[in-house]
Amino acid sequence: MAQQERIRVAIVGAGIVGLTLAVALNAFDSERKIIVDLYESAPELSEIGAGINIWPRTWEILKRSTVVVLQLVSQGL
Ligand SMILES: Cc1cc2nc3c(=O)[nH]c(=O)nc-3n(C[C@H](O)[C@H](O)[C@H](O)COP(=O)(O)OP(=O)(O)OC[C@H]3O[C@@H](n4cnc5c(N)ncnc54)[C@H](O)[C@@H]3O)c2cc1C
After folding, report:
1. Over 90: is that where the pLDDT of 65 sits?
2. What is this structure's pTM?
3. What's the pLDDT at 41?
């Protein structure tokens, strides 16, 4: 596919929103028309020493996203 037929999307921030958006764009882009560039300013992942509560609806979305990520990884994407 020619480069000009594709859409390039820049996502700034690889937090839960940026990562979820990247996964969602990949999952619904069966024709591979979207190129995603994900930018993160933090030099490394680190713990902040806080617990996290996840609401049931959020947990459902995270579980579905995880399934999509595993499918993409298994397809070598
Ligand atoms: C101590 C603490 C406890 C929390 N506990 C909970 C909880 O229990 N339950 C809950 O649901 N929520 C909790 N939250 C809130 C939750 O963390 C946020 O709602 C959620 O992380 C927001 O996700 P986000 O992707 O929008 O932003 P973030 O997670 O903040 O991600 C944004 C990312 O963008 C990067 N970034 C910023 N500017 C740039 C730039 N110019 N270029 C490149 N990268 C950039 C940052 O480094 C960061 O990694 C908590 C927050 C804190 C601070």
Report:
1. no
2. 0.79
3. 96
Query: 16-51 b/e with 16+ CB inside 10 Å = b?
Result: eebbeebbeebbeeeeeeeebeeeeeeeeeeeeeee
Q: Is the CB of 50 under 6 A from ligand 1?
A: yes
Tokens at 48, concatenated: 């902040």
The ligand 1 atom at the shortest distance from the C-alpha of residue 18 is 25
- State the pLDDT confidence band at 42, using cuts at 50, 70 and 90: very high
**Residue 41 backbone class (left: φ over 0; alpha: ψ -120 to 50; beta: rest):** alpha
Query: Which residue has its alpha carbon closest to ligand 1 atom 1?
Result: 50
Residue 16 Cα to ligand 1 midpoint, Å, equals 7
- Residue 14 Cβ < 6 Å to ligand 1: yes
